[in-house]
Design a protein that fits this description.
The structure is a homodimer of 273-residue chains.
Chain A lengths: L9 H5 L7 H13 L6 E2 H8 L3 H9 L5 E4 L2 E4 L10 E2 L1 H18 L7 E4 L6 H5 L8 E4 L2 H8 L5 E4 L2 E4 L4 E3 L3 H7 L4 E4 L3 E3 L3 E4 L5 H10 L2 E5 L11 E4 L6 E3 L2 H9 L6 E3 L2
Parallel strand pairs in A: 5-6, 5-10, 6-7, 10-13, 13-15, 15-16
Antiparallel strand pairs in A: 1-3, 2-3, 8-9, 11-12, 12-14
Helix pairs in contact in A: 2-4, 3-4, 8-9
The first copy, chain A, binds a DNA duplex (30 and 30 nucleotides) through helix 1 and helix 4.
Chain lengths: 273, 273
DNA sequence: CAGTGAATGTGATTTTTTTAACATTTCTGC
DNA sequence: GCAGAAATGTTAAAAAAATCACATTCACTG
């Protein structure tokens, strides 16, 4: 006889709002460890390993503080938004990602085997970093954690990370002597990003700690390649780091490309799509 | 009139054995680009994006030469280590992970709010790094990429990464002046890992480039905490970096713990489980 | 040690994904 | 334009996963 007058159900308690219990945390710890080096684990196997039912694991995973997630019956580590900017790509986001990817395809064509590249921070150049496996004998210099992670996955590419204090906002490092370190390296080709590109005022970014490395690279690299998408065109950001004429090549498209094409005697060479 | 005398069905032709057609390859190219930096895409979104039915994409994906794969309704890159199925997760491995996690729980109890910690490379201390969110005002110094990634996810922890040339084998960086940088920092508590711990010969690791930072830390840190599991006990590895008496605290258990407990006048304090 | 609430298990139900079979459209060479 | 093949769409059935409702177990407290 259904006399339970105030039953609210487990959903409310244990669902997406709740926190995991002690043993739940322990289980998660185990599974997380099992997946440290990536990979996925079928729910049934995981349940057998932990000695609990699938349902229990489902409940663990659905708690708000879980670091695991379940997709199609497989447990995977919940994506760190840090270096997984596009987790669950909707059609909208895809557009932006596709644009960046196509910019990077063009940028990739500038690269020769054996180059020593600099890759700037931000998300624009991330697809470039992931595609470098197609060239031989490359060395990549960067001060961005997300770029370093992408490059670290490529077996044939040497990686040099300029360390220092980590800045979450830009996912990059800030160091006193970064400029000096950059000057000590022989950078062949530098891929530079910008949060703002203005026809008169030139290149700017959000964070002041990015200025020193950017300028050091502009100063020392043999070839400087600016890559930016339309959303940055005609924008001013707090920290200026250079002029349009400080770069040798510009990779962009659409609005920015046609505006740039109209500038007479533009110094950088223009690559558009 | 069903006179088709030799109809074998599509399954045989288009299934796992077949190759993709021209447009299929184009579609895949597009989707692959969208997923360059990892992540996943729901089949329905992908279908909308490509302007075809879900079924068509399913057929693309199931062709032998596809670089995409489908898990639980989501498209992912087939080579993405994040989604690689982990087939053989033996109770053995699981046990190792569990041991490391429990060692790290003990290590965590050594930490006070406001500490400046050093965390060594390897997998042993990885669970420690992920748990640091429980303390306030911490600063973490490391030269390991995996540790840096774990710490970068924690909002309240300052991270200082000692950069340089990346070494895949140890997921850490090698730099000329790393020792100098470490000496310039005020490290409060250093968590040190070792690939080999020998009762007489002391502490060793696999890679020579780890020796300089480890020794610099041992030399300068206020408190040195060695963490290792049983599999390292009584082992000699190529590169020696210190003696047992160079550390202040040892966190371990089982075989190693009882052997150490038998050593008279052992200098480091022992924490076991 | 009964009683309570949290944690977990079980099986039915609903939803989603996968597969299969066949219809329809598009392409290609003549 | 037409035949035939290739590519894609549509629908139904099967399989798997996710959710739900409630039963059971466990760990405590008084």
């Amino acid at each position: 006889m259904c006399l339970r007058y105030k039953w609210t159900g487990w959903s409310e308690l244990g669902g997406e709002n709740g926190l995991m219990n002690r043993r739940g945390v322990e289980r998660q710890e185990r599974l997380l460890q099992a997946l440290v080096s990536g990979g996925s684990l079928h729910l049934a196997d995981a349940a057998k390993l932990c000695g609990v039912s699938e349902m229990t694991l489902r409940r663990d995973v659905s708690s708000r503080d879980s670091l695991l997630s379940l997709m199609g019956g497989y447990l995977v580590r919940r994506d760190d938004p840090h270096y997984m900017p596009t987790y669950d790509l909707s059609a909208q986001q895809m557009r932006g990602a596709e644009i960046k990817a196509s910019l990077c395809r063009h940028a990739l064509s500038c690269i020769d085997d054996g180059d020593t590249l600099f890759i700037d921070c931000g998300t624009t150049l991330l697809p470039l970093a992931s595609e470098l496996g197609r060239r031989q004998g490359l060395t990549v210099v960067t001060y961005a954690l997300n770029v370093a992670n992408a490059v670290s996955a490529l077996d044939d590419v040497r990686l040099i990370l300029l360390g220092g204090r980590y800045r979450r906002v830009s996912q990059s490092f800030e160091g006193d002597d970064m400029a000096a370190q950059i000057r000590a390296l022989g950078i062949n080709r530098a891929f530079i990003s910008a949060a703002g590109v203005h026809p008169q005022r030139g290149l700017s970014c959000f964070h002041f700690h990015e200025v020193a490395p950017k300028q050091a690279v502009i100063e020392t690299a043999a070839q400087r390649i600016l890559v930016f998408d339309d959303s940055k065109w005609d924008c001013l950001r707090p920290a200026f780091f250079g002029a349009l004429s400080d770069v040798d090549i510009i990779v962009t498209h659409d609005r920015a490309a046609s505006a740039l094409a109209d500038i007479p005697d533009l110094i950088p060479r223009l690559i558009t799509m």
